[in-house]
Design goal:
CATH superfamily of the largest domain: Periplasmic binding protein-like II
Number of helices: 10
Radius of gyration: 33 Å
Helix content: 40-55%
Number of domains: 3
C-alpha cells in the first residue's frame, strides 16, 4: 500500500530541494530521508530523481515520471488533509446536518430551542421533515431522520425520548353553543356532530378514530386539514366541532370560542422528542439533545 509518509517525504524534498532541509523539517536524519526515497521508488517501480553523475552530490531534479508522480502526490496529500479537516469540522460542529421530524401540530414548541441551536451551531444545516407523528416514526425507523417529535404511545424499547408537553384534548365549540357552559363532554355525546379532523397520517387522528369506534360509532367527518387554526375558523363558521389540544385552545379568543374538556375517554396530547436507541448519533444530534434538555429541564430522557 502506498505510504502517505513516504509521499510527504518526497514532496518535501522536491519543495526544499535539499536533503538537509527536508530532514530538519520532518525531524529525521539525512540517511533516513534517502532510505525513504529509495523505498518509495521501489514501491512505485520507477526512478523519481535524476541520478547524479559518479562522484557528484545528488541533485534534486525530477525525472519525467517523477514530475507526474509529484503532482499526484500533491493531490493525494491535499485530499488526506481535506479528510482530516472534514472530520475535525464535523466533530467541532462546523459542518453537518440535523435531520429533524417536525409535525405541523406542535412545531411551535420547538421554536426557542431551534433558535438557540442555530445561534450556537450556525454551520449545521437544519433539514426538516414536516409530516404527522406516524410519518415521523416511520422515518426514524428507516434511518431517514436523526430525531423527531412523536405522540405517545410509541415503543420505548426502540426510542429514547425527552418529554415536550402533556395537554388534555378539548372539544372546541363556538362561545354561543349550548354546550359552551359544560364542565366536560363525553365522546359518545358527539355521535351526531360533524367532525373537523386532522389528516390520516396524524397519530392524533388515529387515536380519535379508534376512540369513536370503541364507543360504537363512526364520526361524521366533513373536513380534514393539518392546520389547527383553519379547524378553529371552521368551527366559528358552524361547520362542526374540533378536538384540539388545550395548548392550542388557550391561544384562541375566549369571547368567540369555548373549549370543554373531553371525558370518557380522557385523551391527552403527549409529545416527545425521540431518537433511535442503540444507534450511533452524530455530534450535531448530541448538541441538539443537549439543547432540548436545557429547554425542557424537568423532562429528562428515559
Amino acid at each position: 500500500m502506498l505510504s502517505f509518509k513516504l509521499l510527504r517525504c518526497f514532496v518535501t524534498l522536491v519543495k526544499t530541494k535539499s536533503f538537509t532541509h527536508t530532514a530538519d523539517e520532518l525531524h529525521l536524519t539525512q540517511p533516513t530521508i534517502s532510505k525513504m526515497l529509495q523505498q518509495l521508488e521501489e514501491q512505485l517501480g520507477v526512478q523519481l530523481l535524476v541520478k547524479a553523475e559518479s562522484g557528484r552530490k545528488r541533485q534534486i531534479e525530477l525525472t519525467e515520471i517523477g514530475e507526474r508522480i509529484y503532482q499526484h502526490a500533491l493531490d493525494l496529500l491535499q485530499t488526506q488533509q481535506n479528510i482530516f479537516q472534514e472530520i475535525e469540522n464535523y466533530q467541532a460542529l462546523k459542518t453537518g446536518t440535523l435531520r429533524l421530524g417536525v409535525p405541523p401540530l406542535g412545531a411551535q414548541l420547538l421554536t426557542p430551542a431551534l433558535f438557540d441551536y442555530h445561534q450556537q451551531w450556525s454551520k449545521i444545516e437544519l433539514s426538516f421533515l414536516e409530516v404527522g407523528s406516524r410519518g415521523i416514526e416511520q422515518a426514524l425507523l428507516n434511518n431517514e431522520l436523526d430525531v423527531g417529535v412523536l405522540l405517545q404511545p410509541f415503543d420505548t424499547n426502540i426510542f429514547n425520548a425527552i418529554e415536550l408537553c402533556d395537554y388534555p384534548l378539548m372539544v372546541l365549540l363556538r362561545r354561543d353553543s349550548l354546550w359552551a357552559t359544560r364542565t366536560s363532554i363525553r365522546l359518545e355525546e358527539l355521535q351526531q356532530q360533524s367532525f373537523l379532523m386532522f389528516p390520516e397520517n396524524f397519530s392524533l387522528n388515529s387515536i380519535i378514530m379508534n376512540a369513536c369506534q370503541h364507543y360504537g360509532f363512526e364520526p361524521n367527518i366533513v373536513c380534514k386539514t393539518s392546520q389547527w387554526n383553519l379547524l378553529a375558523d371552521m368551527v366559528l363558521q358552524r361547520m362542526g366541532i374540533a378536538l384540539l389540544p388545550q395548548y392550542y385552545t388557550n391561544m384562541l379568543d375566549q369571547h368567540l370560542f369555548a373549549a370543554v374538556p373531553l371525558q370518557q375517554p380522557h385523551i391527552r396530547w403527549h409529545l416527545f422528542m425521540a431518537w433511535r436507541k442503540n444507534y450511533a448519533i452524530s455530534p450535531a444530534v448530541q448538541a441538539w439533545i443537549k439543547i432540548m434538555q436545557q429547554h425542557f429541564p424537568h423532562r429528562r430522557p428515559d
